[in-house]
Automatic annotation (TrEMBL), chain B:
Any GO molecular function: transmembrane transporter activity
Stated name of the protein: ABC transporter related protein
The keyword Transport is annotated on this UniProt entry: yes
Keyword terms, alphabetized: ATP-binding, Nucleotide-binding, Transport
SMART domains in the cross-refs: AAA (SM00382)
GO cellular component, one term: plasma membrane
Amino acid sequence: MRADKEAFIINRGIFFVQLPDLFMTASSSLSRNKSRSILTILGIVIGIAAVILMLSIGQSAQGLILNQVADLGSDLIFIEPSSGGDSSGPPSAFVEQTLKIDDAKALERSGLFMDVSSMIVSSMAVSRGEESKFSQVTGVTEGYLSIFPADVAEGRFIERSDVDSYARVAVLGKEIAQDLFGDQDPIGKEIKIKQTTVRVIGVLAEQGSRFFQNLDQRIAVPVTTAQRDIIGLDTVNFIAARTSQDIESAKDEIRWILRAEHDIDNPENDVKKDDFIVSSQSDAVEIIGIVGGVLTILLSSIAAISLVVGGIGIMNIMLVSVTERTKEIGLRKAVGATYSEILQQFLLEAVLLTMLGGIIGVLIGVITSRLAASILASYIEGWQSIVPMEAVVSGVVVATTVGIIFGLYPARRAAHLDPIEALRYE
Amino acid sequence: MSSSIPLIDLRDVKKQYINDGVATTVLHGVSFAIQEGEFVALMGPSGSGKSTLMHILGFLDRLTEGAYFFRGQDVSRLDDNALTAMRRDQVGFVFQAFHLLPKSSVIDNIMLPMMYVGVPRSERRKKAEQALDSVGLSHRTDHLSNQLSGGERQRVAIARALVNNPSLLFADEPTGNLDSKSGSDVLQLLQNLHTSGHTIIMVTHESEAAEHAERIIRIRDGLLVSDARDHARRQGSIYNK
């Protein structure tokens, strides 16, 4: 009996001999329904394009920040006040200010650090005559420029003697200088920060922005003057230091020095007991990496949802197509199409649809990413266009897989049709 | 009658359908043999079982009881793939409703069955053109099938049925959807094909159409009621089984 059956099946070589035929059949049936095909793949196109665009923007932003972090150097250590306890979670605006200028001086005295600068920052009204602007006023020490490098365009920067003598002097960013003085030379002229009159001693060269803050709109004053005369506080917002030794041991040194300064009894070196946080650039890089990873997971899940929705759309249209073409399927079976040949034909149609959707989606995603990058680059200095290659490749691969998964059920329905019933179908 | 093995040999074929647990017997035991080269008309009123019989003969359906020998080999219990292979390699179908793909060209329609047989691409068009020529429609090669008249469509369908050189041509009410002129053209074409050696089984309920065949098998209520050959009919005596 077995031998009989086999005798009737003419050997036709391997399974995929007909692949070009199937491909032509599938593509011609898709092109006969152009507008429907396009509408069907729209969900997949939009899903994939959106994910590539968002990943591109996310990675470009991440790259920008990482570059800026790298520009500052890996030997930079930041000390910020902390309420203690769990150091994770968002930075709070209501953290008790615990750092003082004396803390920075203690670090300086240790001789372990090349540069130490304490800083206090506050946004306030700055005026010259009728002209009034809001600016970020930064109380700094003479070490500021070695922490955050910038060129002095005119005049000089704040010196040690200015800090020690509570001098009422200010160094302007390039843009705020232009806003207040126009074409005039600001050196030697007076401006008012809140109610305090200070004399401009210098203007910094253009710096652009860092971490999305415009540095050219800032005004630097001696930290002592800022504390006593302008802001009215005896604390500082943070202290920055550079070290030439190993970062981790330098961080530990800072902790021991500040604990002594703050009378904190913490022999077990438990950072949660401190009223400050010591962090280095590598910590920042790590956090940026975590944020980037979370962003990618988030976008991937949105992509997954949109692709499932798109896949259901494909399945729906393929089922309609199978019903519409019942007679065609009946005829194909009558003239000798096997179950697997019908299955392959309809599966290939679904896969061609989604693969096309994936390719179009990738193209649109790449084009809009480049467009967005060129727009953003004109606003944000150093913004680079990053189109993640893995997203491009996985976009097409995933779309194709969606076609296989959601095309299988309609294709099986088609392949299972009984030729007699199918030919009679009205 | 020649001593060679008949092309078709049906022995007490029964067919039963089960719908919602109710069994309906459509064929109650039909036996006959058809030799290669015959032109047979299968007649009977609607509901007689003639369509079911054609489906079984054409490997579209299976019998429930009995045996079906095709060229001496038992094909009664073939599985789906084997039946498909039989349809593909042994038979050509002509349907009442033509069943051409409406948005495809005439030549594409005729080439369709060759795809499943695995005829190399390069040979398909030539074979299809030959088949189209044999039904006298060479001038319609690249027309869309829905631009043709009914008679032309049926001739295209005949070309499609012939393109793989089947052992057997089935025509299921081939004139049912045609006016009498086109219908007689199609019947004349079938007769010519028979003359040139094709084996043809035509299902019809029209006596005029059946007159073109050299043998008429009549079915009623799932039983064979008569099987008459040309010479017998001409002599006016009907052989009753």
